[in-house]
């Protein structure tokens, strides 16, 4: 059963000279307990689609959709107050840059305890105990000490673990991870991805993984949605997509994987698409 359903989502941004379309009639569906990967290069509308579902786009965004439901609840018909009861509690999001997402003026402990007090209604003492438990759960060393650390005192990987702890603090039913391994080295990337999948399996939450890395998709996803220039190109289970991609753009993404290189250099997506057109 679907936990999130979006039909015919369009997002336009107003500019001084008119508007431009960032998302053009996209459908998104993720089932309970499923890992959905949304893939595509920068500018394909991956993040904007999910920010629209979260209600986090700026006032310059014009959002329309035929349907946008969370577990049968109509998000489009909700007031901002009603939506806030779901966003940040039942639906949470991990953003691309953990350092930029954390407030540099407050400790990690203060920030996660605020989430727990506001969204879970815990007392200060209970929030602190739960924060330590969460820091342990995401594998942060010296969790009590990390509560006192400011973002600049932690590594990128540690900051991302803090963000994950904050995202799972309220036991969400849907977690959206937007390029969660950007700017991390390869070893830390694998640790973060393994952590997300372990948490997803342990809690049974649905996970939407936004990425441009097809290798990550192959290792983590149940189903894949491919986007290009604001449109959905293809959707399939992960095995079918890798074994028999239907869309030229999907084939172009797969051709750029290192293991698929046929010469000294990997082909670019543009060059692959050009060769398909000329053929």
TrEMBL record:
Membrane topology: Peripheral membrane protein
GO biological process, one term: transmembrane transport
GO MF annotation: an example: ATP hydrolysis activity
Boundaries of every ABC transporter domain copy: 6-254
The entry's keywords: ATP-binding, Cell membrane, Membrane, Nucleotide-binding, Transport
Annotated Gene Ontology cellular component terms: plasma membrane
Pfam families: ABC_tran, oligo_HPY
Superkingdom of this protein's organism: Bacteria
Subcellular compartments: Cell inner membrane
Protein family: Belongs to the ABC transporter superfamily.
PANTHER family to which the protein is assigned, alphabetical: DIPEPTIDE TRANSPORT ATP-BINDING PROTEIN DPPD (PTHR43297:SF2), OLIGOPEPTIDE TRANSPORT ATP-BINDING PROTEIN APPD (PTHR43297)
Protein name: Dipeptide transport system ATP-binding protein
């Amino acid at each position: 059963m679907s936990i999130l359903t979006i039909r015919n989502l369009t997002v336009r941004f107003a500019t001084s000279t008119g508007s431009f379309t960032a998302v053009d009639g996209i459908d998104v569906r993720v089932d309970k307990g499923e890992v959905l990967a949304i893939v595509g290069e920068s500018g394909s509308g991956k993040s904007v689609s999910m920010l629209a579902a979260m209600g986090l786009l700026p006032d310059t965004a014009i959002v329309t959709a035929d349907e946008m439901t969370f577990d049968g609840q109509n998000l489009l018909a909700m007031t901002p107050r009603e939506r806030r009861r779901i966003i940040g509690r039942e639906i949470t999001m991990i953003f691309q840059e953990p350092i930029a997402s954390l407030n540099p003026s407050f400790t990690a402990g203060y920030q996660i305890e605020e989430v727990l007090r506001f969204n879970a209604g815990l007392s200060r003492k209970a929030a602190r105990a739960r924060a330590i438990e969460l820091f342990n759960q995401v594998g942060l060393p010296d969790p009590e000490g990390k509560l006192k650390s400011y973002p600049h005192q932690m590594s990128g990987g540690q900051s991302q673990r803090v963000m994950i702890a904050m995202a799972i603090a309220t036991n969400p039913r849907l977690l959206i991870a937007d390029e969660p391994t950007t700017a991390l080295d390869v070893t830390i990337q694998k640790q973060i991805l393994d952590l997300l999948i372990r948490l997803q399996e342990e809690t049974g939450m649905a996970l939407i993984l936004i990425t441009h890395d097809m290798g990550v998709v192959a290792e983590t996803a149940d189903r894949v949605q491919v986007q290009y220039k604001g449109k959905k190109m293809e959707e399939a289970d992960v095995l079918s997509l890798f074994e028999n991609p239907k869309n030229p753009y999907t084939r172009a993404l797969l051709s750029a994987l290192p293991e698929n290189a046929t010469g000294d250099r990997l082909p670019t997506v543009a060059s692959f698409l050009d060769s398909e057109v000329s053929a």
